[in-house]
Amino acid sequence: MVSLEHFIPILAVTLAAATPLIFAGLGELVTEKSGVMNLGVEGMMLVGAVAGFAGALQWGVFGGVICGAIAGALAALPFAFLTLSLGTTTSRPPGWR
Fold it and tell me: Does the model's pTM come out above 0.85?
């Protein structure tokens, strides 16, 4: 049996580690409600994280944030072009909302 003094720190670390995935899941939920399924959310986050780490090593924290944001945006650009400009969406049966 896990005592309460061990459970609280484990819960706090779990919630802190899961926060980026929770935000990504909420963003994906919003896009799926609009009729578009984006299966590359985790990949976009990974590209931004790797570029942010490399930028932080080279230029410090602020440079890492800028590099991560730019790389994440560039990773999302093909998906945005396909869905917004070309109008590709997921195929759903008629009458499905």
Answer: no
Please count the helices (runs of H) and the strands (runs of E) in the chain: 3, 0
> Which residues fall within 8 angstroms of residue 45, CB to CB, at 6 or more apart?
20, 24, 72
Nearest to 79 by CA among 38, 46, 34: 38
Q: What are phi and psi of 67, to 5 degrees?
A: -65, -40
pLDDT for 32-80, tens place per residue? Answer: 887 788 888 889 999 999 999 999 999 999 999 999 999 999 999 998 8
Residue with tokens 């995935």: 21
From CA 38, how far away is CA 42, in angstroms rounded? 10
